[in-house]
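can u do me a favor
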């Protein structure tokens, strides 16, 4: 699921007559009533979903213990722009390189960030943090107002839903040319999602 942007949940204004007949059945919008139950069934049956940017809201809509990290301390109120604003900068995250989703990545990774979703995970929730902000000021390039609020916020996570896997990529890891640094998170998510556990035969040595 790509970043949904501001159009999430809105009905399409596209004229069906301008779309080839074989594709008209795909016109529509994401809704909690119709779309989310189908995505849940897909995951529980063993499917995998890679959500990027605002599409990561799927986690909370599925009832997973994933909360917004950028809130007023002790509340659930989102931080206002006068306290936190990062419209386009490069930040550094710590990466758990023992996880298959992070295969081939360094322990410290620069990511492009533009007011994207970040997460707080409940301990023991089963949702695994893959990349998070470790430093008091992770800014590497550009500017970010209120950067200390980023500390310990999770940028990348994954969760098992039934037999399936949900990958949450808060930052836009496929944004323009920056995938040279973060594209592996996207492609690892695609590969790991379809991977099957196999039992290898005993070594003959």
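np, heres the sequence
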């Amino acid at each position: 699921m790509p970043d949904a942007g501001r159009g999430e949940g809105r009905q399409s204004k596209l004229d069906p007559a301008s779309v080839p007949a074989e594709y008209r059945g795909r016109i529509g919008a994401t809704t909690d009533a119709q779309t989310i139950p189908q995505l849940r069934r897909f995951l529980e049956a063993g499917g995998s979903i890679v959500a990027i940017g605002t599409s990561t809201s799927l986690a909370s809509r599925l009832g997973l213990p994933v909360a917004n990290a950028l809130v007023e301390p002790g509340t659930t109120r989102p931080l206002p722009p006068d306290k936190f604003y990062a419209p386009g900068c490069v930040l550094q995250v710590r990466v758990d390189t023992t996880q298959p989703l992070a295969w081939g990545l360094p322990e410290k990774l620069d990511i492009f960030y533009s007011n994207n979703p970040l997460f707080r995970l409940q301990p023991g929730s089963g949702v695994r943090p893959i990349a998070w902000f470790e430093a008091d000021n992770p800014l590497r390039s550009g500017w970010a107002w209120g950067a200390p609020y980023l500390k310990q916020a999770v940028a990348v996570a994954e969760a098992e839903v039934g037999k399936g896997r949900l990958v949450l990529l808060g930052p836009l890891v496929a944004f323009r040319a920056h995938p040279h640094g973060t594209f592996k998170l996207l492609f690892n998510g695609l590969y790991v999602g379809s991977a099957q556990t196999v039992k290898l035969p005993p070594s003959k040595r």
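Confidence is low (pLDDT under 50) at residues 5-11. hope that helps!!
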